[in-house]
Amino acid sequence: MRRALIVTAAVLLVSSVSVAAASAKPNPERSWIVTLAPGAKGNRKAMVDAVDGEVDHVFKKVLNGFSFRGTEAAARAIARNPAVQSVTPDGVMRIAEPAPDGIARIAASAAHAAGYVGEQPDGTPVRIAIVDTGIMATHPDLAANVDVDQGINCIDQTKSPADDHGHGTHVAGTAAAALNGVGVVGGAPSASLVAVKSINAAGSGTDAEIICGLDHILALYQADGIPTVVNMSLGEARAEGAGCDSSPLHQAICRLESAGIVVVAAIGNDSSDGSNFFPAAYPETIAVSAFVDLDGTPAATGCDFRIDVFFQCDETLASFSNYGSRVDVTAPGTWITSTTLGGGYGDNSGTSMASPHVAGVAALLLGANPGLLPGEVKDILRDTGECPDGSEAGAATCAGHGQWQMSAFFGGTNPDPDGIPEPLVNAMRAVDAAAGAVPGDARPTVAIASPAGGAVVSGAASPITATATDDNGVSQVEFLVDGASIGVDTSEPYEATWDTTAAPDGPHTVAATATDTVGQTRTAQVEVVADNAPPAVAITSPVPGEAVSGTFTVTADASDPSGVARVDFAVDGQAIGTDDAAPFSAAWDTTGLPDGPHAVTATAVDNTGAQASDQVSVTVDQSVPSHAAVGYLGFGSDGRWGQDGFSASSAAKSFSWPGADSFEVSIDVEVGA
Question: Catalytic residue at 352?
Fold first, then answer.
């Protein structure tokens, strides 16, 4: 099986003037990234010439520094220069291998029909920079959108950013293939495409080559102010610290985000937690997982098999996709049809293909509202996304709106490993929200203070409280249960009461929607359990009137929306045992009791302390043989049936057990060689 992967050699980037050994070989040459101290104007060439190195890339915008090739000894020597803040080994990034369809599934086609195509109100295209293997600029579906004058080749700056691999061309088509009546259409069909070649023909690129590309993108943005989206379908799993100074690459990403550039990145294809997969794991990016869509509609059509990623099931998260709390949104990423080298079309799968879906939608948002900040774009994409139950998220995740399943490589599905349902991007809802947003005026923040998620609530006046803030003031907070309003509060502390007795016992979604003074909103929600009725309990053994003897196992079924804390068992009011986990049971020694009637009771206690009981009357009769005996019946060495007090005739298929009128037999036949 060929799995869709975004893998690289792991390189630890550290913000320090000390440089860790990069290899066991004595002083091998390699690439290093030098970050100069703020305001430093060190002579780069002189520094590198003094240690017999060679300057590679010079960074002026996203990073004050440069990269060079040289030995570890050379790196240590440069690190001692007072103008140098840090010297770190250059890392290696590799592209995310393959991905599929989805423009219709994310309602991008509807957005196009409504006039949102990636152009600003004055007709100027939004820019999408594809940091990848380059773009085939002459492809019939891309030629109209590729800005050949703005591209850069950071692998070899003497050459054009032509694609010599195919990955970048496929990604570019998903982001912005032209709406021209032929081939495919991208998420933002009128956006301009800028080829930033930071990945080579073998599918890898260093941190320095990627930073070179980001440096170029920021220079373009500073020169013309055109709203810009960066797509990074690449990455590496590695350890990094927190904050923008955790690595030169992180510093560069932070610089782009703070300047107003939206960065979208693939979360990786290792079927694992993506919290250490960079650059997607940086909080300044929009991290994208891969979703399976087989027909462009929300209807689940079953599973399909292809050799590249084996079984994938419609309307699930892709089996190969990374997951975790750093994922912001999901988008189609399985068997995506897009542009290929040579002017044709083909399918690929991976988070590499999911990411440009989101980059295209982000460009639609900036076209509808060019003043949106990167954080506002992220919020809109998440809040307007589609949840597993088909509803709009209204929050950063779809908590309280169902759970996605994840496809299994060998067929079927498994639960989402992280249990966090990320929203599926919905372009139409997103552009509508973007068109009505107020650029530069952040939407309010809101959080439900109580009850906590998963809490059990009860009573006719269960309190709900929330906190809300906004840079210009909060006008109101509306409280809702399962989408129905239960109250509005216009001043702190924001609160409402909920009559849970009017709702059925079981799970419910509690939400608080804050509205600021200009009409912008944000919603927080938690799922709670209403429980006003006592638990249900029923004794399953013995049955009423049953005659029992010896040591007898009493069993009961019990259930409650809040969960059953325990079941207490008693006979004639005297405790015989307690069980706190299903199946609930207790052993009853009847031998010390007189023959005759006795009352058996099971009392269930739920997690709110409410309780309920069931009782049956039985007869103790020690003349009745205990039916708790257990034996193994099989063929003996003499070819006859029998063992442990049982005897049988194999020919007649009859069995006998001294002292019993009837009994149950389980027969396992084992045939040896």
Answer: yes
Alpha helices for 89-206 (secondary structure H): 108-113, 167-176
Residue 146 reports pLDDT greater than 90: yes
Compute the distance between CA of residue 535 and CA of residue 606 in angstroms, rounded to an integer. 6
- φ and ψ of 639, to 5 deg: 85, 0
| Contact of 230 with 264, CB cutoff 8 Å | yes
Is-catalytic flag, 132?
yes
Tens-place pLDDT, residues 609-621: 899 999 999 999 9
Catalytic site includes residue 167: yes
Question: What are the beta bridge partners of residue 643?
Answer: none
CB 89 within 8 A of CB 70: no
CB 424 within 8 A of CB 460: no
Whole-angstrom distance, CA of residue 477 vs CA of residue 463? 15
Query: SS3 of 12, please?
Result: coil
pTM greater than 0.85 (yes/no) = no
Catalytic residue among 90, 101, 132, 347: 132
Tell whether the model's pLDDT for residue 232 goes beyond 90. Answer: yes
CA distance linking residue 484 with residue 479, whole number of Å: 8
Distance CA 627, CA 605 (A): 30
Q: Which residues 6+ apart lie within 8 Å of 350 measured at CB?
A: 4, 5, 6, 96, 97, 98, 99, 233, 266, 269, 290, 320, 333
Residues in the chain: 673
Express as a percent the part of the chain with pLDDT over 70: 87
- Structure tokens that stand for 535 in this block: 């638990």
Which tokens go with 517? 């003074």
Choice among 190, 198, 352, 462 that is catalytic: 352
Catalytic residue chosen out of the listed positions 139, 167, 357, 401:
167
pLDDT reading at 56 higher than 50? yes
Whether the link from the prior residue into 493 is cis, omega within 30° of 0, is yes
Residues 6 or more apart from 25 whose CB is under 8 A from it? none
DSSP reduced 3-state for 589: strand
CA 221 to chain centre: 31
Percent of the chain at pLDDT exceeding 90: 71
Q: Any idea which of 298-302, 488-492, 621-625 has the lowest mean pLDDT?
A: 621-625
Residue of higher predicted confidence among 492 and 630 = 492
**Which pLDDT belongs to residue 544?**
96
The residue with tokens 């193994």 is 632
